[in-house]
Amino acid sequence: MKDEEIPAGEELVCGVENRFDEDRRYFLKQSVAIAGLAFVPGSLVAGGENALPESFGDTENVKLSIAINGKKHQLNIDPRTTLLDLLRERLALTGTKKGCDLGHCGACTVHINGQRTLSCLTFAVMQNGTKVTTIEGIGTPEKLHPLQTAFIRHDGFQCGYCTPGQIMSGVSCIREGNAGSEAEVREYMSGNLCRCGAYPNIVNAILEVKNSGEKV
Amino acid sequence: MKPFQYLRPSKLKAAIEMVSGDPQARYIAGGTNLIDLMKRGIVAPEKLVDINHLPLKKIEYKTGVLRIGALALNSEVAAHETVLQKHPLLAQALDSGASGQLRNMATVGGNILQKTRCTYFYDTALPCNKREPESGCSALEGINRLHAIFGTETENPAKTCIAVHPSDMCVALAALDADVLLSGPGGERRIKIADLHRLPGANPELDTNLERGELITAVEIRDNAFARNSHYLKVRDRASYAFAIVSVAAALDIDNGQIRSARLAMGGVAHKPWRLIAAEKSLEGQPVTESSFRKAAEVAMVGARGFGQNDFKLKLAPNAIVQALLTAAGIE
Ligand SMILES: Cc1cc2nc3c(=O)[nH]c(=O)nc-3n(C[C@H](O)[C@H](O)[C@H](O)COP(=O)(O)OP(=O)(O)OC[C@H]3O[C@@H](n4cnc5c(N)ncnc54)[C@H](O)[C@@H]3O)c2cc1C
Ligand code: SF4
Ligand code: FES
Ligand code: FES
């Protein structure tokens, strides 16, 4: 599903079920947050960024509205939560990988409002109102994304750990118009490291999809 | 990571108030440098002021001046038509930095204020005058392959810092003689990029001359005659996605085979983007030849010194200057 195609009338999802330390205090806060939801205008999720309050929450609990793979979420989170940890630990979207957790390896690459970014180097709360796409959002086992198919055909991976990041980055590389040649792909994919050294096959997979002219 | 309060102002004034009155407060823009530092416990703000909702994103051209908002992303600036047309040097420097993902997150203001990449600065187990004033400089007799060759003072071990400023963008901005626009509790001011960063002197913990709470709002570059003959050369350990060992921003205004004026700045060689004014002057009126460039490189290297592992930069730097000038001139 594309970032833009968030179904308008979709239910707001609350993250309570994924929270592990459901102590009473937390439960109370969460209940208040849910009660408050009825008044949250839809534009908050759709990117009405200027309508945001200047200060809210305390040091352990802030509100977050975010759309992930077309699904809207209203959550209460610790502001220290990175987008990567939110995806993996809170929402169980473990396709996005944690390699270095310091912005060096590209394993955590996701799209924020359609642009490739590193989910380990942004606090989730900073992405309030954005639309995030992860590897789970670009294809399904039944209907793979063209670049996923190309990775399989070209053996674009060995252990597979870097692969979700490679694919998210590769899709952007093509969309940005930076996949015109092998040299260009190598340059614009340099932020995605592969310890298994599958680079030549990754480059070939990206070039094949680019040259096929298929829409990514 | 230490807990912090997260604040998201939408007005400039409110943001400045939040940080200027509180030594424990910090601005955050792209977060690509600050979050890294926070994860490693090197910076531990109690208040994080997210400036991404301030109206500082615009890139505009008006009467001879290109104004780039502090929140413009590195990737947006590098792809901007006016930047490509009038200041391709800046686009080239930006494109050579970090990765596609990071350039989509990093802002102009954050890029200017990023911290050094000296490994000891990040290693809290070892002394570092920048991180922990008066504790000593581990790089001086340690791994200093990537360290400074200009502007260093080592008489006082408790004040020494031989780290380099890691930004590519700032090297181009220095060569383009950009202004940085600041807004702080005391009002607005404008400062030359060359005067924004500082040499370590007696306060290696300070990277810049900004006052507490001062916010970078924009960068301005005036029209110049360098667009046709400029080049950013970045020498690094691998072909892409690595910080510069040395880098050179070279720009020439050429008239009939003669250099009317020149701009030169280097990265990876000093605690700040290193503008080579004397070398620029030495090129004025000279023919566009390799020997003119060699002479300028010699002038540029006056006062340089190595610390052992980085001695090779004493040879690499002048060669890089010559090569950047040759490419800028379209000779090679
Ligand atoms: C793996 C990796 C590789 C990299 N490679 C390169 C490279 O090759 N070349 C290169 O040049 N850079 C490189 N970088 C650094 C990158 O360019 C910087 O991290 C980035 O530019 C910082 O911008 P930011 O908006 O994310 O800043 P932040 O992390 O948000 O902020 C950095 C600092 O600036 C302050 N700040 C931010 N905006 C403002 C403002 N408007 N006014 C006042 N204070 C402000 C913050 O308080 C903080 O102290 C690399 C980074 C990583 C992680
Ligand atoms: S060079 Fe500077 S940053 Fe590096 S250890 Fe010495 S004082 Fe610290
Ligand atoms: S986990 Fe984010 S870049 Fe490595
Ligand atoms: S496939 Fe193993 S790290 Fe890339």
From TrEMBL, chain A:
PROSITE patterns: 2FE2S_FER_1, 2FE2S_FER_2. The keyword Lipoprotein does not apply. Pfam families: Fer2 (PF00111), Fer2_2 (PF01799). Keywords: Iron, Metal-binding, Oxidoreductase. Residues 62-138 form the 2Fe-2S ferredoxin-type domain. This is 2Fe-2S ferredoxin-type domain-containing protein.
Automatic annotation (TrEMBL), chain B:
PROSITE patterns: FAD_PCMH. GO terms for molecular function: carboxylate reductase activity. SUPFAM superfamilies: CO dehydrogenase flavoprotein C-terminal domain-like (SSF55447), FAD-binding/transporter-associated domain-like (SSF56176). It comes from the Bacteria. Residues 1-226 form the FAD-binding PCMH-type domain. Pfam families: CO_deh_flav_C, FAD_binding_5. Keywords: FAD, Flavoprotein, Oxidoreductase. InterPro entries: CO_DH_flav_C (IPR005107), CO_DH_flav_C_dom_sf (IPR036683), Diverse_Substr_Oxidored (IPR051312), FAD-bd_PCMH (IPR016166), FAD-bd_PCMH-like_sf (IPR036318), FAD-bd_PCMH_sub1 (IPR016167), FAD-bd_PCMH_sub2 (IPR016169), Mopterin_DH_FAD-bd (IPR002346). This is Aldehyde oxidoreductase FAD-binding subunit PaoB. It comes from Dyadobacter linearis.
